[in-house]
Design a protein that fits this description.
The chain has 351 residues and is mainly beta. The chain folds into three domains: 114 residues, Alpha-Beta Horseshoe (Leucine-rich repeat, LRR (right-handed beta-alpha superhelix)), CATH 3.80.10; 90 residues, Immunoglobulin-like (Sandwich), CATH 2.60.40; 90 residues, Immunoglobulin-like (Sandwich). It is built from four helices and 23 strands. Belongs to the LRFN family. It is a single-pass type I membrane protein.
């Protein structure tokens, strides 16, 4: 390509050209980019060389013919370099912004090729997310040209896409699985050719109520670890029958796959943010979590396994004013069993 003299790229639906795309085409004498979809053109050394033959024509310098009419040019400060070129008249017109639409490109004064600095119109201010849940931070900005938005983490590092974090062009940052490391203040940067604008978004991660991470505390008599797979064993009375260890939690309307859980209101002097139900069953020690509104006093568990024993605890989550950390208080624990179901047997009886 270094010996290329003529390059015709007209009518190709081209909407983007990288800077210095034609920089090494030193022998190029004609470039035709008419009737494409270009809204802007980046500076290129080819255009600078094209000025040499116009300003100081010599037998050794040729005039480079450039054609880029028929493109929907957005006439702002990013095209000011092009407006300052010395060249023969051509028929390029502006398609936008609105006050320049339809005007002849070369007749517009340079001072009208302006850009507007970014203005952040709305953004996430503060959000509380339970550890392990998905967090979404949003940032929207306007400007001319359209601002590019990126996020900076609490560690003062630009957030890049990964398996857990996705930063979108529209300014949305998704943290798919949150950990305590993501807790902190994030900065939204909106930038364009005219400047930049910033906004802060405070992400508060509520730790899961277990003491293994060293951030939580149980503030009344400890019935055992929050890991209910080892702490909520049934209490057996003199008759050998199992009974709940705490009357503040009750289980009713138990079927093979559902159960209605009720609990008494927490007596903590602190304001409860939410309740958390933790439970597992005798055939799978994996804990299942359910987050419940602080106004609720009952919840229906669904999709349970029939014919197995369940251990369940309810915890109140609130803000400890002393340590400024999320704290938990055990409301109560209970054990129950789901009913056995034999769908295949019922089907045989039907026949």
């Amino acid at each position: 390509l270094p010996d290329l003299h003529m390059l015709n790229l007209d009518h190709n639906l081209i909407d983007y050209i990288m800077a210095d795309t034609f920089a090494e085409l030193f022998k190029l004498a004609r470039l035709d980019m008419t009737s494409n979809r270009l809204q802007t053109l980046p500076p290129d050394s080819l255009f600078s060389r094209s000025q040499t033959g116009v300003i100081n024509p010599t037998p050794y310098t040729s005039i480079i013919i450039l054609n880029f009419g028929g493109n929907p040019l957005h006439c702002n400060c990013e095209l000011l370099w092009l407006r300052r070129l010395v060249r023969e008249d051509d028929m390029e017109t502006c398609a936008s912004p609105a006050h320049l639409a339809g005007r002849y490109f070369w007749s517009i004064p340079e001072e009208e090729f302006i850009c507007e600095p970014p203005l952040i119109t709305r953004h996430t201010h503060k959000v509380w997310i339970l550890e392990g849940q998905r967090a979404t931070l949003k940032c929207r900005a306007i400007g001319d040209p359209e601002p590019i938005i990126h996020w900076v983490s609490p560690e003062d590092k630009i957030v890049s896409n990964s398996s857990r974090m996705v930063s979108y062009r529209n300014g949305t940052l998704d943290i798919l699985v949150t950990t305590m490391r993501e807790d902190g203040v994030y900065t939204c940067f909106a930038t364009n050719a005219a400047g930049e604008s910033t906004a802060l978004a405070d992400l508060k991660i509520i730790p899961l109520p277990h003491r293994g991470n060293g951030t939580l505390q149980i503030l009344h008599h400890d019935p055992g670890s929050s890991d209910i797979s080892t702490s909520t064993k049934p209490v057996t009375n003199s008759t050998g029958r199992s009974r709940p260890r705490d009357k503040t939690v009750s289980v009713t309307d138990v079927t093979g796959t559902t159960a209605l859980i009720r609990w008494a209101q927490s007596k903590s002097p602190h304001i409860v943010w939410m309740y958390q139900i933790q439970y597992n069953c005798s055939i799978d020690e994996t804990l299942v979590y359910r987050i419940i509104s602080s106004k609720s006093k009952a919840f229906i568990l669904k999709n349970l396994i029939s014919g197995v024993d369940y251990d369940l605890c309810i915890l109140a989550i609130y803000d400890d004013s002393v340590t400024q950390l999320a704290a938990t208080k055990v409301v109560g624990c209970i054990q129950f069993s789901t009913h056995e179901e034999y769908p295949h047997c019922h089907l045989l009886h039907a026949h």
